[in-house]
Amino acid sequence: MQYEEIIEIDPRDIIIGENIRTDVVLDDEFVDSIREHGVLSPVVTYRVADGENKGRVELVWGQRRTLGAIKAERATVPALVAKSKDEALKAAKIDRIVKQIVENDQRAGVSESDRAAAYEQLSILGLSATAIAKKVSAKRARVKTALDVRANETASLALTDHALTLDQAAVIAEFSDDAEAVARLVEAAHDGGFDHAAQRERDDRAEQEVIDAKRAELAEQGTTVLDREAQHHPEAADLRTLADAEGNDLTEDSHAECPGHAAVILPGWGGNVRVVWLCTDWRAHGHRDRHGRVTGPMTDEQKEERRQLIATNKAWDSAEQVRRAWLRTFLARKSAPKDAAQYVARTVLAAHRTVGSAIGDNNQLLAELLGHDKPTSWDDSPLLEAADKATPARAQMLTLGMVLAGIESSLTRHSWRNPTREAADYLTALTGWGYELADVERIITEHGTD
């Protein structure tokens, strides 16, 4: 907001405009405070441009402080003099909004929805996210998130209607073009496990984008691309199991001219996809099983078992990302939790091979979680420098991190299928320190101690 000047002025010389409220209450406590300390927050004014009061200062915001100063017989009050009446009115509106936010925070607090709406009003009045953050003593990133949420209709409505947190609403904004994803996320916000649900949605979207890109690439080459269920059709078979009539193994190239030539795109490891090449009716097209086996379709029970396996593996991958993101924040602490020493002692004794294996690998994962470059050797490690500079409390945290990263690095997709006591103790400890388990991780904590 632009001001022409900031002045000290006799409150009696300020013009109280006709549209200023007349029901001002000047209680003794308020007047006594001004008498002792003066007016601490400047009133908002502008300089009259014409007429009989030309050149004088007229009040726009701060009537109670001005009248209180007159009653307290203060010689001057601080005043912001705007360049014009419009600028002064805008400044007054900004001050009212900021004051409301601050006062609500000091009392019962302001809802996330109301806070975001107030930030938006300030933005409309011309304040940048940085200026808003400074005025309301908030972090700029927080203000920016609120403004982004208000700019997205779906996220803004979800914030208001479902009492979400600002961070949750920001995630809703990511998926505002997918009503089903939004519904799942809102449900997770109410039922628990929101971070895990959000990561699964991100992973599923990223996976589908890769699959769609591969599908488009194959379609451009003239390849028939079928949905993944096609591989289980009674007449279909993977080319890797087939031979032609003369007994020659079929390949993608040798089978390309067959009318039954098709592909199925499946998700792979690390965000990649794999293509399974099929013949949609291998018997009708004169092929045979290359090993002489009698092949047949999967049963419904086998199909459901496979679907569950794939879904749970994907859930594990998503949970791993959420868990490691949580670990990065947790390991930034200056000091360890009170019960960390017991966990470290027990784990080093009971799981020394697992922890030792990670140490032997130069604590690669710990370095990554702490934001360092991965060490190339034990004597050339950024972790050594971090340890040398650490306070005693931070050094304990690094020791805890070394143990946690050791166990974390040993967990894979097989961990939920074969739960161990060591994995269960690890996840239970994280839960005690504030981590929220995903359903797939609960399989380990519920069965790993059997």
UniProtKB/TrEMBL annotation:
InterPro entries: Chromosome_partition/occlusion, ParB/Sulfiredoxin_sf, ParB_N
A single GO BP: chromosome segregation
Listed Gene3D superfamilies: 1.10.10.2830, 3.90.1530.30
SUPFAM superfamilies: KorB DNA-binding domain-like, ParB/Sulfiredoxin
Domain ParB-like N-terminal: 7-97
Pfam families, alphabetized: ParB_N
Stretches of the chain forming a coiled coil according to its record: none
Entry GO CC: chromosome
Protein name stated in the entry: Chromosome partitioning protein ParB
